[in-house]
Design a protein that fits this description.
Layout: E1 4-13, E2 16-26, E3 31-35, H1 42-50, E4 60-62, E5 65-66, H2 72-78, E6 80-83, H3 95-101, H4 114-120, H5 122-126, H6 137-149, E7 155-159, H7 167-174, H8 177-182, E8 186-191, H9 194-200, E9 203-208, E10 211-216, H10 223-231
Parallel strand pairs: 3-8, 3-9, 6-7, 7-8
Antiparallel strand pairs: 1-2, 1-4, 4-5, 9-10
Helix pairs in contact: 3-6
The structure holds adenosine-5'-triphosphate and magnesium ion.
Residues 13, 16, 18, 36, 38-44, 85, 192 line the site of adenosine-5'-triphosphate.
Length: 235
């Protein structure tokens, strides 16, 4: 049984349909990447899994249990944590206060604590009393990742970590991923950068217009097939 699965997942914003029957699976210990152009439905998929958007109960299964209709706090308490698009820190709170917020709702024992997060991102320890707004984009992203890890999640959902960051900073952020994997978390990464996605993921899903258009292991997918699945056959 997969750790996390979606079956025929649909999602709507009022009467606008954004997902049209998405099937995906995440095995325990696996890292998968979701790629696709602007508006493909990647964030909608993350919001559906994390409970920000509500879906049919049986459309999302966690260890075989239907979770599609649960609220975000209930999904989080099961051990599914999200690093949201745009980081969404609490601007008036310090780095450390933002990290500690990740604890609420799931104070589970596990590998992640202020100490281990500061070890992974030493700059956050130096800046622990600095307000979120005074941080660089890369440092904010580190806080957002740390905040999600503070709940010791079994599944970590990351929505466009690279957005707006310089290549050298993106490299620093992704350098943390082996440690996150080793901690036992399974990971879903949304990325617009296909090269980055192929480097970090065991399997890749391409989305276009609310549907999965291609999936497989990076070594099994040709550049041409990914290009067609990402931009459409006529791009
Ligand atoms: N809050 C909303 N209300 C109405 N429509 C929305 C809302 N959020 C997203 N959409 C629409 O749903 C579709 C999928 O959007 P989504 O944000 O999931 O795409 P995405 O793949 O994450 O894109 P991006 O790469 O730009 O983040 C788009 O057509 C978008 O305009
Ligand atoms: Mg998005």
């Amino acid at each position: 049984m997969a750790l996390l699965e979606t079956h025929g997942l649909t999602a709507f914003y009022r009467d606008f349909q954004a997902l049209f029957g998405v099937d995906l699976s995440l095995e325990a210990g696996e890292t998968i990447a979701i790629v696709g152009a602007n508006g493909a439905g990647k964030s909608t998929l993350m919001r559906s899994i994390s409970g920000v958007l509500r879906n049919g109960a049986d459309q999302i299964l966690f260890e075989g249990r239907p979770i599609g209709a649960l609220t975000a706090p209930d999904v989080m308490s099961l051990g599914i944590a999200m690093v949201p698009e745009g980081r969404k820190l609490f601007p008036s709170l310090s780095v450390e206060e933002n990290l500690l917020i990740g604890r609420y709702g799931r104070a589970t024992k596990g590998p992640w604590s202020l100490e281990t997060i500061y070890r992974m991102f030493p700059v956050l320890k130096e800046r622990r009393n600095t307000p979120g707004t005074a941080l660089s984009g890369g440092q904010q992203q580190m806080v957002a990742i740390g905040r999600a890890l503070m709940s010791n999640p079994r599944v970590l959902l990351c929505d466009e970590l690279s957005l707006g960051l310089a290549p050298i900073i993106i490299r620093d952020i992704y350098a943390a991923f082996p440690a996150i994997r080793d901690s036992g978390a399974s990971i879903v990464i949304v990325e617009q950068d296909i090269g980055q996605a192929m480097k970090v993921a065991d399997r890749l899903y391409c989305m276009m217009e609310g549907r999965v258009t291609l999936s497989g292991r990076p070594a099994e997918l040709s550049r041409e097939a990914i290009h067609a699945a990402y931009f459409g056959a006529h791009a």
